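Progress note, sequence design subtask.
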């Protein structure tokens, strides 16, 4: 399934998220909270389990990544 980037969505806490595909299996997340500075992180889809990927992220980053997975997962 093909996805259009940049992908945009809003988390339940009001933070706006933009996801860019920056290369083969690499995704840049930009988090724009209602208050405070923007933050960003990169997710590499490199075969690690979801638990392993989430281990180094904070709660809001995990929330954004899980929403990304929900929107991009092929359910067959």
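Output:
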């Amino acid at each position: 399934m093909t996805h259009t980037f940049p992908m945009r969505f809003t988390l339940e806490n009001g933070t706006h998220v933009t996801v860019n595909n920056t290369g083969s299996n690499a995704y840049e997340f930009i988090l724009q909270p209602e208050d405070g500075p923007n933050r960003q992180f990169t997710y590499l889809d490199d075969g690690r389990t979801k638990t392993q990927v989430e281990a180094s992220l904070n709660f809001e980053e995990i929330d954004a990544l899980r929403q990304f997975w929900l929107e991009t997962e092929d359910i067959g």
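The chain is about 25% helix and 35% strand. Work on this subtask will continue into the next period as scheduled.
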